């Protein structure tokens, strides 16, 4: 779009994806600050890495992960679809899935206002994944999210 409209020259978007393979392997990748989480045994693990300036400061040990959550650069992305840096491609994580695992793929409209602990509790308690995703979206809106909110929740039936 930037090539067609100069007002959109620096526009871009984020992406998070998961690809399942037979044998219970899941490939997970993201560009930007949309995330993929694994919820297993009531514990949550972030599988993707944010491409924000705040995360870069964490990796440089300039600030702590806790400080990054409220840092003024938490929403400033250095890598996103549409940026020159995306040419390197995303980092890909390989996860061996187990029965009852749950995956949450979501935008920062959710993670910017709902804590990881609350995400884990909500996803763990859910019995219907569609209702879980809708409930997480509503939770973000109830927390006054000022960003777009998208999420998908996947339950692994067999590992």
Automatic annotation (TrEMBL):
A Pfam family cross-referenced in the UniProt record is: PP2C
Location of the PPM-type phosphatase domain: 1-156
What top-level branch of life does the organism fall under?
Answer: Bacteria
Q: InterPro entries, alphabetically?
A: PP2C, PPM-type-like_dom_sf, PPM-type_phosphatase-like_dom
Q: Which GO terms describe its molecular function?
A: protein serine/threonine phosphatase activity
Please report the name of this protein according to its UniProt entry: Serine/threonine protein phosphatase
Q: What is the lineage of its organism?
A: Bacteria, Pseudomonadati, Planctomycetota, Planctomycetia, Gemmatales
